[in-house]
Design goal:
Blueprint (H helix, E strand, L loop, with lengths): L2 H12 L5 H11 L3 H19 L7 H9 L4 H21 L1 H23 L28
Helix pairs in contact: 1-2, 1-3
């Protein structure tokens, strides 16, 4: 058995879920591998520390809520949220900078257009009253005399 297989077997052994034939090969490996023996010690120490802890007072409503959950629902939610986050980032990686460039261009065009239209020293020609150039003004000197 490889060390990874033995570590998986150790976890199952600590939970009481390892079949007897798996125990034999695990213990044979433990006789030759100090790293896996340390891992077994840590797992057994952790289980003993958890067993020695006082039980927490949990409201019955929480027990009912947790027991009513479908197995794997938390995993499904995290996978779905991870998928949505990846999709969101992929969908924004190109359109967002493009939209920023378009918005900047529109803002520049608007500011340029307004600066042309709102020059204070110039009066637009369309706002001047029509003038008859050929009409004579009363009181103006007559040049034909």
């Amino acid at each position: 058995m490889s060390c990874n297989d033995v570590k998986t077997a150790i976890s199952a052994y600590a939970d009481g879920a390892l079949p007897p034939d798996g125990e034999e090969s695990m213990f044979v490996h433990l006789g030759t591998c100090a790293d896996c023996r340390r891992f077994l010690g840590h797992v057994l120490d952790t289980r003993a520390a958890i067993a020695a802890m006082p039980r927490a007072d949990v409201p019955e409503s929480l027990d009912r809520t947790v027991l009513a959950l479908k197995p794997g629902i938390a995993r499904e939610k995290t996978q779905r949220s991870r998928w949505l986050a990846d999709l969101w980032m992929r969908r924004l990686s190109i359109p967002l900078p493009s939209a920023a460039i378009v918005a900047l261009a529109l803002l520049s065009i608007t500011i340029f257009s307004l600066s042309l239209l709102l020059k204070p020293n110039e009066v637009p020609l369309m706002s001047l009253p029509p003038v008859d150039v050929c009409a004579e003004h009363p009181g103006a000197p007559d040049h034909n005399e």
